[in-house]
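To assess whether the prediction recovers the assembly geometry, we first specified each molecular entity separately, as shown.
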Amino acid sequence: MNDKRFHSVRLDKEKCKACTNCLRRCPTEAIRVRGGRAHIIDERCIDCGECIRVCEYHAKYAQTDPLASINRFKYKIALPAPSLYGQFKQLVSPSQVLEGLLRIGFDDVYEVAEGADIVTRAIRERMRNIDRDDYPIISSACPAIVRLIRVRFPDLIPHIIDVRQPMEVAAMVAKREFCKKHDVQPEDVGCFFITPCAAKMTAIRNPIGHETSAVDGAISMLEIYGLLSSQLKKIPVDTGLAKATSHGVGWANAGGEASAVCPEHSMSVDGIENVIRVLEEIENDKLPDLVFFEGSACTGGCVGGPLTFENNYIARGVVRDLMHGCDITHPDEKVDVSYLNKYHLLLDKSITANKAMRLDDDIVEAMRKIEQMEEITARLPGYDCGSCGSPTCKTFAEDIVRGFATEMDCIHILKEKLKVMAQQMVELAKTTRE
Amino acid sequence: MESTILKNTYEINAGEFQTAGDVSANIKRKLKQIGIGGTVLRRIAVASYEAELNLIIHSHGGKLTLEMTPSSIILTSADVGPGIPDLSKAMQEGYSTASEEARDLGFGAGMGLPNMKRNADGFSIESEVGKGTTIQMRFDVKDA
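The predicted structure of the complete assembly is given in tokenized form:
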């Protein structure tokens, strides 16, 4: 299952009109338009899904597992992300959604919000051993942000908390408990995350910080939305299935993790461009009092994921209302300390820098390339129009230096050149006539 | 002296708070592209930001120059005035002559120069009242 090249975000070549809408929105400059269609540079793509959101032609999509794929396993467990609860306006309790999942074909459910409860406790324990000099601690929950840091802020990698994300923890606990209860073999049990985003799908197939994922697949919320909402009408208000605390459920919204993990001196930033701006500040040591940083690639947090159905502001409100009906015990008291030893909650592989932004492995050569880029940029118009297929004039200069483009790909330079050539031809015609 | 491979000069105007941080962000982007990372990158980022802000807040305008050699990054801030009357005082943490306007914007904590000195591997400052101030900072990148 572990595939280093796997990306959930894909391009449908047929639908792509080469319009450049996605170009400028990509936070890692991973898209180029060449030969009449967009191309995604795999090494740079962080699977944040920004391009999925902006593509008017729906040419960008997230590859997830079809619902039918759960039948690969004898026993199927659904792991609903807490953001799933926010999709249903009439919901009274998360229990209804859990019952609904059982009715559409799963044998068991385990709330990722419960995983978030365990992770909350684990992070708080872990934080006791982190030196003040290593603040701020950066959340590892949003896989797109972890990847963003690898590509654009590699010097901040040591700040990422080495605790696995709630989805992973939920899968480990769900599988072990199911096997014990029903006396079955782990290989017969499949755990499927109900995902709001592409980044989680990538995190399952190509994990960062651990070798393999405990999750067996990811089903898009959009795929099961219709099925679930028709079931919900028939389900009694409280089936008693939901066990997560309000703190765990709150992880669905931006700020939920920060307020559960570190209510004071923490910050929650949502929307990837906003996250980038604040990471720049952290890098410049401008936030010396910050202890915990939660960043979500999507506006509103996970409820704003590209695979969600409901508007993120509405979903946020639904989640907040549901939280009032949940157990308000803090995970510090609710989660037994034995969980921290019984399960493998920490990352066991170091997170490495992604070197895709580097111009050259040799530092002197890279410096020379910067110099060439400066010279080229000075000749470019600076319109950042995207007509050449690169997101900005600066990245175009970079592409030329890397050997992926030539100056004549700039239509403005080409136009100037043609003007000069036309003039020369007129002059040539005149002189030959005489 | 080692040969300079790249030299970029950025003009910085006095009082232009709206673009504060642009030059240091530009420098940071370049450093990342050449593969400078870890604590060296952060030290240069902090120092270049402070230098840029100092030019905006305290000077009559000036230039920030980035030079790259195979083993080091050199940042030079050179302004056209007003000059610092008492250098030893200016180098003290917490001492600031920032204007009310700058303080209102959250600057003027008196950490600019000390911060630059602390983060650089080599630091020199020269100033003459009425003429200007030149600060040079060196960062070793060999083991970056």
